[in-house]
Amino acid sequence: MTSVPADLLVTNVTIAAPSTGWVPTAGWLACRDGRITGFGRIGDIAPRAVKAIDGEGGLVLPGLRNGHTHGSEILARGVADGLELADWLAEVWPRLDALTPEQMAIAVRFGALLSIRCGITSMVDHMRRNPMSDEVIEAAAAAYESVGMRALISVMVRDRAGANHRSVGAGHLGAPEPAHRQLARIAAAAQRLASDRIGIGVGPSASVRCTDEMLSGVASLSRDSGLPIHVHAAESAAEVADERRDFGMTSFERMERLGMLGRRTACAHCVWLEPRDIEILAGTGSVVVHNPVSNLRLKSGIADLPGLRAGGVEVAIGTDGAASNDGVDVWEALKFAALLPRRNAGTAAMPGSIALLDMVTTSGAAALGGRGVPFEVGSPADFCLYPAAEAPIGNDDSFAAALVLSVPRRPSHVVIGGALVLEQGAFLHVDEAETARQARHLARELMA
Ligand SMILES: [Zn+2]
Q1: CA of 162 to the centre of ligand 1 (A)
Q2: Looking at residue 343, what is its pLDDT?
Q3: Can you say whether residue 201 is alpha, beta or left, with left for phi > 0 and alpha for psi between -120 and 50 degrees?
Q4: Where are the alpha helices (DSSP H) in 63-166?
Q5: Are 416 and 145 in contact (CB under 8 A)?
Q6: How many A from CA of 291 to the centre of ligand 1?
């Protein structure tokens, strides 16, 4: 008998993961107490476990990480189609800023269920609600916990008044709450709510929407408490021009000067960059989250993914909020990331498929504030089992390409922290149909 300890065992599967270069291997995997305890090949004796799943020839992959989204936007899919960022913000957010804590919980729970159905086991929720409150953050954290989802709730902050120009936006909001009070709320929430599954982070809306005092305060809070920072950066050309006019520098120069960049910081979008900005991002070890679908939907532009990677920047993949996507499917975003660099003849197919798969797993974990290769012995047991019909057939080279390009792909089983949350296509802890009914009702009410 093997000595691998196990309380959950998945047999008769093909496994592919970053730690083995995404080379498919047939065998089994075992977990105990929320962590992976062993992998075996065909012929290796599997341990006994409390719960055993026959994968029936299916495919096990690590859970995907959605590096940037806004949970409540799941209620606003399809809204403001065709508008650019500033007009879109003005159309969508006055409605979502009105969510009560109970309504936020419905939106978050529904978005988490849809995410798990897309193979996502953890996500950054850059959580906006103006004004922010303890109750809203608590409701969101409880909703993620109820589903069994891992989430970094990066609580949005902003403190520049809205009327001076459109990138600052939020004309429907009153005077902003002082920076120190917004940051104190986040520090207290982190103390109260952080758990094995829930992280709390600090999320400036964008540097152009924050004073220097706020950005310095964000840097101090992250330094003192270890909280990850998540920020929109250089998403639209207009925002970059406004920042230069108001502050005489780029967002990245300003954030670096105020101590906000580093290995705990993830910058979403990064579409409009100067060469010096790429040097700053690489030099500080900040992570960029590429959101190709949202950037097209809002006509913001196409981020230079090959240029960022060639410059030594770690890049993760995000969907952005579902109001600019109009879903939460990271597989789809990954396919756009693969294909957009090839839009003209003569370009290389880069990044390659293996690098893209790493972006949505290893780099995604970095965007959530963690480091290290996920899905090896000792890692948290966060993985998905896809039915055999969804597993690519081919040699090792075409296998990775097929994973990236042959979407959509939907898991039958999802395990997060060693616990099944989806089994044979059914959620174990939440009434999916009732959650969907509540979300539809709420979306109709809000978007009327
Ligand atoms: Zn966003």
Answers
A1: 18
A2: 92
A3: beta
A4: 85-96, 101-117, 134-147
A5: no
A6: 9
pLDDT of residue 2: 62
Residue 89 and residue 57: Cα distance in Å, rounded?
46
DSSP one-letter string for 261-311: -STTEEEEE--S--HHHHHHHHHHTPEEEE-HHHHHHTT-----HHHHHHT
Residue 266: strand pairing partners: 230, 287
Are β-strands 383-386 and 51-62 bridged in parallel, bridged antiparallel, or unpaired?
antiparallel
Angle formed at CA 435 by CA 433 and CA 438, multiple of 5 degrees: 110
Say what angle helices 432-447 and 85-96 make with each other, to 10 degrees. 110
| Contact between residue 56 and residue 28 where contact means Cβ atoms under 8 Å apart | no
- On whether both 415 and 359 belong to a single domain, the answer is no
Amino acid identity, position 146: S
In the structure encoding, which two tokens stand for residue 275, read together?
């060469």
| Residue 160 per-residue DSSP state | S
* Ligand 1 midpoint to CA 124 (Å): 10
Q: What's the 146 CA to ligand 1 centre distance in angstroms?
A: 24
Instruction: Tell me the CA–centroid distance for residue 26 and ligand 1, in Å.
Output: 38
**pLDDT 10s digits, 377-389:** 999 999 999 999 9
Domain that includes residue 27, residue range:
8-62+373-425
Into how many domains does the chain fold? 2
Q: Are residues 96 and 33 in the same domain?
A: no
Gap from CA of 285 to ligand 1 centroid (Å): 21
162 located within any domain: yes
pLDDT tens column, 273-290:
999 999 999 999 999 999
Residue 91 lies in a domain: yes
Residue 34 CA to ligand 1 center (angstroms) comes to 31
Question: Would you state the structure tokens that stand for residue 390, as one six-digit string?
Answer: 């969804």
With a cut of 70, list the residues of the chain below it in pLDDT: 1-2, 162-171
